Amino acid sequence: MRWRGQRQSENVEDRRGSGGGIFRFPFPGRGGMRVPSSGGGGGKGGGIGLLGILIILGLVLFFGFDPGSLMQGSGPTGGSGSGFPDIRLPQQPRTTNLPAPGTQGQITRPQSSSEDDLKSFVSVVLATTEDVWNNVFNQLGGRYREPRLVLFDGSVRSACGTGMSAMGPFYCPADEKVYIDLEFYRELKNRFRAPGDFAQAYVIAHEVGHHVQKVLGIADKVEAAKRRMGRRGGNALQVRMELQADCFAGVWAHQMQSDKGLIEPGDIDEALQAASAIGDDRIQRQTQGYVVPDSFTHGSSEQRVRWFRRGFQSGQLQACDTFNTDQL
């Protein structure tokens, strides 16, 4: 990704070094999945252990942490519910066609992974999302509320509760902020085997996609619908939320290419590789040896790749209507 020399967002809060307090998951109005503490039961016992749980959390939440889905616990006890909320995306005027891949010259990728470099990189990526979504909302005759991005280390307090680095990046709809510990990018490369600066950018674009859902009113409708559903229905609805955020990330990538020319050869492959690596089916197969589709909350590898690609190829908001299709 050709990011050096580009505008940096002013909507970045650096809370690194400030500490986040004790680890807890209150998340007002929602259930809670409790993460075992390191005390009490010692370092041994049944199950995969604390480290394993944290690794799985990092994988499951990678590219798609929604506090509502993680904290829903056993979910509402109402009917199984399959009726999705009436969600319609606003009509967006057509934009320019996507240039053919590989039409731009190869640009040497930055090699530095210093904290300052990463902070600058994240600020540039956030700025590109601001440009893209301000433009889209202007075309729709609306106004885009820009989210803030919070850098932290270890743990952080948000309006959704206290988060930990092991959770991965997440979006809190209560304060409309994206949270990320930059150490995650090293984990992304070394442990999750998803290297590349555009894979890193995709992390932010996906979380900002959840913010777009909040601004459009989609997130509130989904949360209201999930309260009327059982676990299976809530999971199915959450999958559609996550796939739409993937698609919105694809729309962002399209505009990055067509309007800004910041995408380099190989960037989209990095994003697709990362999306495939964190599909629910692949994670379940790696962690438990078998797949349970009814428990999916983010979508399969194939689905995540498909919806990002759909947004990227079309560049249109309407292409991301995951709530009114039978073919995910």
Automatic annotation (TrEMBL):
One of its GO terms (cellular component) is membrane. Keywords: Membrane, Transmembrane, Transmembrane helix. It comes from the Bacteria. The chain crosses the membrane at residues 47-65. InterPro entries: Uncharacterised_pept_Zn_put. It is found in: Membrane. Residues 1-31, 73-115 are annotated as: Disordered. It is a single-pass membrane protein. Residues 92-113 have a biased composition (Polar residues). PANTHER family: INNER MEMBRANE PROTEIN, PUTATIVE MEMBRANE PROTEIN YPFJ. This is Flagellar biosynthesis protein FlgM. It comes from Methyloceanibacter stevinii.
